[in-house]
Amino acid sequence: MPVLAQAILASHNAGKVKEFQGWLQPWIGELLPLPATIEIAETADSFVGNACLKAATAAKEMGAWAIADDSGLVVHALQGAPGIYSARYGATDAERIERLLREMAGVSDRAAEFICVIALARPDGTIAVTTEGRCAGEILTAPRGQGGFGYDPIFWVPSQQRTFAEMSPTEKQQVSHRGQALQRLREYFQTFNP
Ligand code: IMP
Question: Is residue 69 a contact partner of residue 58, using CB atoms and an 8 Å limit?
Answer without folding.
Answer: no
